[in-house]
Design brief:
By secondary structure, the chain is an alpha+beta fold. It has one domain. Helices cover 43% and strands 15% of the residues. The protein is built from 4 helices and 7 strands. Helix 1 packs across helix 3. The longest helix has 22 residues.
Length: 149
């Protein structure tokens, strides 16, 4: 039997939603600190990221117009029904790259900015976690493109 916790919106949350909410708030606080203070990303951050990803398994996300969920087994994140698997190191790499881009360019507003295969599936999760954002700057940012005069 699960205990229910009432939140400020006066709707009931299950224990798993409450755990996700607490982990998400801690992760977003760490992300804000890293981005604002131009701080190095440490092992503690990556551990918290993986804990949060584990807490969000089986929650629906949307990519390319389709709904998908994922499950975590050991150090792998498997996208259910899509035959795609991301290891923990790959997820850490995506997160590190996204945070680096946020520190230096202030936004990561679409999966292509991550510049990696499979980013379309990781991006919605990172958007939910606050690693990627829809905030855009006034100037366009071109990644992997060389301007010629």
């Amino acid at each position: 039997m699960t205990n229910n916790v009432m939140n400020k919106d006066f709707r009931y949350m299950t224990d798993s939603e409450s755990i996700r909410s607490r982990k998400l708030k801690r992760l977003q606080k760490d992300i804000g600190r890293i981005v604002d203070e131009n701080e190095e990303i440490g092992e503690e951050f990556y551990d918290l990221l993986w804990e949060t990803i584990c807490a969000f398994q089986n929650v629906p996300f949307y990519s390319k117009g389709s709904e998908y969920t994922y499950s975590v087994h050991d150090d792998e994140m498997e996208l259910n029904g899509l035959n795609k698997v991301f290891c923990r190191n790959a997820v850490n790499y995506f997160a590190g790259k996204a945070l680096f881009l946020r520190q230096h360019q202030s936004h990561v507003d679409r999966p292509e900015r991550l510049g990696t295969i499979g980013a379309a599936y990781i991006y919605p999760l990172f958007e939910k976690l606050g690693i990627c954002s829809e905030t855009t700057s006034a100037e366009p940012v071109f990644i992997g493109c060389r301007a010629t005069v």
